# Entry
Amino acid sequence: MSAVAHRPARRIWDDLATLRSRFCVRFSPSGATAAAVVADGRGAAYVESWTFGPGHRCEPLLDTWTPASSLEQSGAPADVVPFDDGRVLLLRRHPGRHEVLVAHRDGGLRMAGVLEYPDVAALPAPDGTGRALLICRRPDGQADLWRLDDLAGAPRRTAGLPASPLLVGGGFLDPRGRSFALNVRDGDQVR
# Structure
């Protein structure tokens, strides 16, 4: 008979932070910019931003750099959304909540708000402006939709969704980002 040693559950960040890697890679709606969370292999993380086309460049957004010693206090990076003007929306995960931050290419990191949800995903508006949709799952399985209408403003709750075991896929139905369709898994089917 063999015994299996059980170790405490670890967050995915604990494993990713020890590898030099990029994750949460995402392009802006027009493809003019991109951003990713970079793990430096020593436990620290920062957001990296790319600009494509003439004068293309890749640069770290230094105000987003989080050393390993302060990840618990500062929060682990969870998601990024780049915008065509070079700004990047950053979600930082804390136990039971997410900070919504806006990083500027020329420096500066602004707190846009705090969402008291354990799971949050962000999507940019299809027109590349500083708007985003935040899908927030509550502990009871239901979800709320929040909008960030301006990167200089704060997110606001716009709708609730019924409980679903899994929200998958989805996208904007119009180029101005006013209508959004979301696929919902219902048993063995996705609707």
